[in-house]
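Reading a protein record of the kind used here takes only a little practice. An example makes this concrete, so a full record is given next.
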Amino acid sequence: FAASAGRWTITESMTDVRYLTRDFGRPRDPITLPTPAQLDEVMRERVYDAAPWNSTSSTGFRNALEGWAPGRGNERFRIHNRVHRWVGGLMLGGGSVNDPVFWLHHSFVDLIWSRWQQRNPGAAYLPAEPPPLGDAQYRKVAARHEPMAPWGVTPASMFDHSRIYRYA
């Protein structure tokens, strides 16, 4: 992926950098990758999400997998978020899609999601109803049967991926 050979052009970035950057493990402010124990903790969640449907939700699979945790500094980031921080560089922002590691990482996150669904077949996407007018999440969170712009599909229609792909 060397920029000097012109084989990996950065097309989406939040900075002026036109080449792939990384900072594995962040030597100046070290961070570790997620642990198996942290992943096991995520897999023990039994509901998909909980109010207020954002990074402050104290329970729920979505928030646990995303990696928001209580604490300060690097301890706030687990699972999905921690890997982005561990890789560093372009993986920290909106330009992360330029890094091939992004696609490997998100494929693994999707596998975790699929395994969680198998363990919790009765767990539905939440919220079931849209947050009401006056709620901080009004028009920010799509309810189970609410079409998502610009695609027009609902979260409920995306819950079962088995007709599109499956994991061996």
About this structure: The CA atoms of residues 130 and 143 lie 5 Å apart. The chain has one domain: 3-123. The helical segments are 36-43, 61-66, 79-87, 100-119, 155-158.
